[in-house]
Design a protein that fits this description.
about 280 residues; alpha/beta; 8 helices; about 30% strand
């Protein structure tokens, strides 16, 4: 008998449940907007739109933001730390690793992205959820003109792409279960490698950026690992003045000792003006 571990309950009504060959997926009613926003700022932010929370294997989650076609984009998306790379690129071409419930697609479009490509490994999300039962709820974001999201491994999709991108985004790909165990599984096992960094660099425009976000425990082990991975990938790609290409932004949360970290690698060195904008 397989016994699933007890976990903190998800607030909200279960709207959908489904198995894939490698995961269990449940969609819940409810809001959960705190992870990328400083808690002290929440009361000063624009209204938070309704969302559905898609939970995978009881730990990992991805939000679906309620949005109607041709309506204004939710302003709050521009206030999260994962929006910072967009302030350095006007109308970027974007590749999203792990498109999930479409929040990163919506964010890219809100910043005027001219093209949004990407991949999502979970077929229940790309099919039944985003193109069927929650298509209207999300503004049919997966089928919006200029958006092309494939089902499968993001690193393979990027490798097969002939496009050059201004931003390559990989937000919160690691699951809480893998974080807790000190291991990496499924998608993140292929994304967080020296080879994947090299692949991303090959697909970046001269001023393009690779942005990861992740939870980091108090000892900063994830940040240290990411620094080593990106430094090695950059060196093998002929980039030696590594410190001038890196920006790390941290956001603490009131309910956790962990930090939510945005890690940005820029193919060319950051200028003083760009560093100023990020700070």
């Amino acid at each position: 008998m397989l016994r699933l571990p007890r976990t903190k309950s998800v607030e909200g009504k279960a709207l959908l449940s489904a198995w894939t060959t490698f995961s269990y997926v449940t969609a819940y009613e409810g809001l959960d907007w705190n992870r990328e926003i400083n808690p002290s700022m929440i009361e000063h932010l624009p209204p938070r739109p309704e969302q559905v929370t898609v939970v995978m294997d009881l730990f990992a989650y991805t939000p679906i933001i309620r949005w109607e076609k041709d309506h204004p984009f939710p302003e709050i998306l521009k206030r999260e730390i994962t929006s910072l790379p967009y302030f350095l690129h006007e109308n970027p071409a974007v590749f999203i690793m792990g498109a999930g419930g479409g929040k990163d697609i919506l964010r890219a479009l809100s910043f005027g992205a001219k093209k949004v490509d990407g991949a999502e490994i979970n077929p229940v999300i790309t099919g039944r959820i985003m193109k069927d039962e929650f298509s209207a709820y999300s503004g049919d974001i997966y089928r919006r003109p200029g958006v092309n999201i494939t089902t499968g491994d993001a690193r393979r999709a990027l490798r097969l792409s002939k496009e050059i991108y201004d931003l390559i985004i990989a937000n919160s790909l690691e699951t809480w279960s893998s974080t807790a165990s000190g291991a990496m599984n499924l998608t993140e096992n292929h994304i967080y490698t020296v080879e994947s960094v090299q692949e991303a660099i090959r697909h970046l425009s001269p001023g393009g950026m690779l942005a990861f976000s992740f939870w980091d425990p108090p000892d900063s082990t994830h940040s240290a690992r990411m620094l080593n991975l990106v430094r090695e990938g950059a060196s093998l790609s002929g980039i030696e003045d590594y410190p001038r290409h890196i920006a790390i932004i941290e956001n603490s949360e009131e309910f956790s000792a962990d930090l939510f970290v945005l890690f940005i690698f820029k193919k060319s060195a950051f200028t003083p003006a760009e560093t100023g904008r990020l700070s």
